[in-house]
Amino acid sequence: MSTEHLLIHQNGPVLSLTLNRPESLNAFSPEMILGLTNAFKKAAEDEEIRVVVLSGAGRAFTAGGDVKTMGQTSPKAVYDHIGKLNELIITMKNLPKPIVASVHGFAAGAGFNLALGADLILAAEDTKFILSFAQVGLISDGGGLYFLPRLIGPNRAKELFFSAEPLLADRALEYGIVNHVFPLESLKDETIRFANKLANGPGVAYGMVKKLVDQAGQSTLEEMLEQERITQAMMVTTTDHREGVQAFVEKRKPSFSGR
Fold it and tell me: Which of 12, 81, 234, 250 has its CA 20 to 30 A from that of 26?
């Protein structure tokens, strides 16, 4: 169900979540963060949903934290607010289904980090990713200090944190932050096409790949090899595996059910 600050729409196996405060460039509100967290939790329980698309209404993906309210809150209020943001990021990473961030305009501050919390990022050519925390004397939150160094290395990450300079879409693609860049006018259609392709894939396998890839940075080679071994033994019992093998034998495209 949609709320004032979050639009929720399901089209078959694809759930679309649209940040909806366009007048403030979709700056975060408590209602928006709570709505996103609840939507991702429900998506985890809904077997029909196989992919989630996250986007922003209006001129931008999201400006992140609402600068208008900064300087007016207590340390405790900030601590509590970031706790709710952390719950959202953890819920996204624990979702056993792909999350695609469809980004245009600005993805600033914690909004940049929200996109990093997705599994894949599709960006419009006009997108500017900005880690703007240093401009207001803050550190990055929302998982940025965790995600970004693992994507682009610590030195490049520190430069972006220190400089607070915009990172354009083509450079973000070069750095490996973004998966694909499209003209703004075709971003929505390309995102739908991309999400539908994922939705038709082997959902159980995708969920396990997501989990294991996210684990890899904190695991030894021996630990990952054992996780692959255990998981693969489970995967051969899935309906999707049996369908994939049968389709290969019959020389046809597989029809995966996500089971």
Answer: 12
pLDDT confidence of residue 71: 59
Q: Which two tokens stand for residue 1?
A: 């169900």
Give the C-alpha separation, 198 to 183, whole Å: 21
pLDDT value of position 127 = 98
Contact 172, 123 (CB under 8 A): yes
Instruction: Record the tokens describing residue 86, joined without a space.
Output: 């952390």
Q: Which two tokens stand for residue 154?
A: 């610590």
What pTM was computed for the model? 0.94
Amino acid at 199: A
Note the pLDDT tens digit of each residue in 194-207.
999 999 999 999 99
Residues 53-106 pLDDT 10s:
999 999 999 999 876 666 567 899 999 999 999 999 999 999 999 999 999 999
What six digits make up the tokens of 259?
A: 């089971």
* Residue 19 pLDDT greater than 70, yes or no: yes
- Mean pLDDT for 184-190 is 97
Dihedral sign, CA of 57, 35, 192, 167? positive
